[in-house]
Amino acid sequence: MEEFLPHGAEKKQTHFTDFEGKTSFGMSVFNLSNAIMGSGILGLAYAMANTGIILFLRFLLTAVALLSSYSIHLLLKSSGIVGIRAYEQLGYRAFGTPGKLAAAIAITLQNIGAMSSYLYIVKSEVPLVIQTFLNLEEKTTDWYVNGNYLVILVSVTIILPLALMKQLGYLGYASGFSLSCMGFFLISVIYKKFQIPCPLPDQEGNLTGSLNTTPVSTNDYQNGYTVLQAPEQGTCTPSVFT
């Protein structure tokens, strides 16, 4: 009779790492690093200035980091148990069709918000970069320094081809390039720090000494907008399965 009984001890437990991925380890590292250090880091200084040091450290950094870590743990745990590595399928397995729709809608809204922040940076910063390299006047009407045209050009020539890729793992090359650019600008800022005095010398009309202060705590209506931006600035959950 023993041979007809199921042997639970002999059954191997399924783990997330048992599934063979389609992306190399290096590409995965680039994608995850780019998700962590994306455009959200540009808003951290503004967030700290509006919320104050206490709320910024307690909520924007600590709480969001803990929630992100726990959500990633749940995703990996559940995907390892059921053998599913797609957000929509996990939602369908847990809650049926409503769960699948909720996961799809959440991913779509998150990607729209992240993409909007990137495109806004392209519109506001790229014209200044072109003007600097070409030594153009600030008030020029050329099309290649118009932010509206540059957003369309970047969307069609760069974003659209990357979005049409079959495997998201190939985005690792673009992520590696963006991380290289971040490293270059980081080194440039550190290098300039030792050349430019901070704070600036007192001069007539110089307000850096009075304005360059961060309050310990603030009670402003803008705190609500800043708190809502915190999850997008500090999470990398959408890139876990890529």
Task: State the helical fraction.
Answer: 55-70%
Coarse structural class: mainly alpha
Biggest sheet layout: none
Low-confidence stretches: 1-9
Q: Would you report the number of β strands?
A: 0
Amino-to-carboxy terminus distance: 46 Å
Radius of gyration: 23 Å
The pLDDT mean sits at 73
Q: Please report which band the strand proportion falls in: under 5%, 5-15%, 15-25%, 25-35%, 35-45% or over 45%.
A: under 5%
Question: What is the succession of H and E elements?
Answer: HHHHHHHH
So what's the oligomer here? single chain
What is the 3D form?
globular
Total helical elements: 8
Tell me about this structure.
With 242 residues, this protein is mostly helical. Among the domains are: 46 residues, no CATH class; 109 residues, no CATH class. Helices cover 64% and strands 0% of the residues. It is built from eight helices and no strands. Helix 1 packs across helix 6 and helix 2 crosses helix 8. It is globular and about 60 Å long. The two termini are 46 Å apart. The N terminus is likely disordered. It is a multi-pass membrane protein. This is S38A3 protein. It holds the Pfam family Aa_trans. Its main location: membrane. It is found in: Membrane.
